[in-house]
Structure formats: structure tokens, C-alpha cells
Design goal:
It is built from no helices and 16 strands. With about 210 residues, the protein is an all-beta fold. The chain folds into two domains: about 100 residues; about 110 residues. It starts with a strand and ends in a 5-residue tail after the last strand.
Length: about 210
């Protein structure tokens, strides 16, 4: 699994997962110049869990000559998500867990928050059998803005799935997802959340019922 980010300083940071000396997948990063030649002597390993596989899930650039990457690690059914910020010179600015192990945490999305940090959105089953939508913001210095388990975007009977995320010019996060309620009708819903976690569109707006699509 590979993710490449084009940076403003005309270089490439390539994050990838590959087998390490313990035959487990580890997360690495390497810098490549515009001629596709490696700048560093060897790839930099950013993951530190040698007992489990580590798979890169996404990368976003920041305007301070660095980028933030997230990866999945741990055992099946109790994965945790870790994040790292790497500068152009290969220095690791911070690295830590951003989502603790939860049951069935899937469909992870990451987007730059326009403040040199990142916003994550995912679905998870935390308290019941239904899948709900959660999100988290990571500041430029690696701090988590909301509770460790994330900010719950939607919690209704049925399930929510396939979350997608974007950030507007004011730093508001827009999250869209598919929801199936008790009537087994799938709806497409969207919510707008301020940088402080305020829900700007009430309980979320219904864009369309899948049964109404032509």
C-alpha cells in the first residue's frame, strides 16, 4: 500500500508499508526529488510496533514543509490508528496514537485542515452493533482537539457507512455518509462541523434517499 504526496517545495515524500526484519509490515517514508531519485540514504521507518502489521492509510501535506501520515496497527478487531508528522529534512516532529483500539474501526479518511493539521473521519461500532460516524482533528503540533474516542457525528438506529470528508476555506469540516435506518432505506446525509466541534447543520441534512435516485 503506497501513498505519494506532492509538496510545495518540489519534492516528493513517499509513504509506504513494507516487510521489516521481523517479517511484519512496517510504515516507512522516503524523500524523492523531481527526477525520481532518492534524496535520503535509506527510507525512514516511522512505525514502532514490530509485533503487528502497520499499513499506511493516508497522507496530507502542510504548508510548513512537512506532512502528516496515518496508519493502522494492532490486532484484527482492535486496531489503533497512529499519526506522524515528518519534515522535509527527514526529522520526525511528533508521532503518537490518535485513535485508540476500538471494535471495527473502518473507512478511514484524512484531509488537511488548512491550519497545518489534519482532520480524520471514520465509522466504528463502539457501544452497540450499529456503525456510527466519528471524526477527530489533529493540530499542527500533534494535539487532539476532541476526546480520544473522537467526536460522534451521527448516532442513530441502523448504520452509517462510507464517510467522506472535506474542509472549506473557513476551516469547517463537511462530512457526508450513507445511512440506513429501520425502514431499510439508504439515505445520503451531510453535516457541517465548525473547528470547535459545533454542529452547524443541526442533526445533519438529508441530500437524497437512494430509493429516489434515478
Amino acid at each position: 500500500m503506497n501513498t505519494v504526496v506532492q509538496m510545495a517545495w518540489a519534492a516528493l515524500l513517499l509513504f509506504f508499508s513494507s516487510l521489516d526484519e521481523n517479517f511484519a509490515f512496517a510504515a516507512f517514508v522516503v524523500r524523492i526529488n523531481t527526477q525520481c531519485q532518492p534524496v535520503w540514504a535509506e527510507p525512514l521507518q516511522v512505525s514502532n510496533n514490530g509485533q503487528a502489521d502497520n499499513f499506511i492509510l493516508g497522507v496530507v501535506p502542510s504548508s510548513d514543509n512537512a506532512c502528516i501520515a496515518i496508519w493502522q496497527t494492532g490486532e484484527f478487531g482492535a486496531y489503533s490508528i497512529r499519526a506522524v508528522k515528518v519534515a522535509v529534512d527527514g526529522s520526525i516532529l511528533w508521532e503518537h496514537e490518535v485513535i485508540p483500539p476500538v471494535l471495527q474501526s473502518w473507512s478511514m479518511e484524512i484531509v488537511a485542515d488548512r491550519q497545518n493539521g489534519a482532520t480524520l473521519v471514520w465509522k466504528a461500532s463502539l457501544n452497540d452493533d450499529d456503525d456510527d460516524i466519528y471524526m477527530q482533528r489533529i493540530t499542527s503540533d500533534g494535539a487532539l482537539v476532541w476526546p480520544d474516542s473522537g467526536l460522534e457525528v451521527r448516532n442513530e438506529d441502523g448504520y452509517q457507512a462510507s464517510p467522506r470528508v472535506a474542509v472549506d476555506d473557513q476551516g469547517n469540516t463537511i462530512v457526508a455518509w450513507v445511512e440506513q435506518g429501520l425502514q431499510s432505506v439508504e439515505d445520503l446525509r451531510v453535516q457541517k462541523i465548525s473547528p470547535t466541534g459545533e454542529f452547524l447543520w443541526g442533526g445533519g441534512r438529508l441530500l437524497q434517499s437512494v430509493s429516489e435516485a434515478t
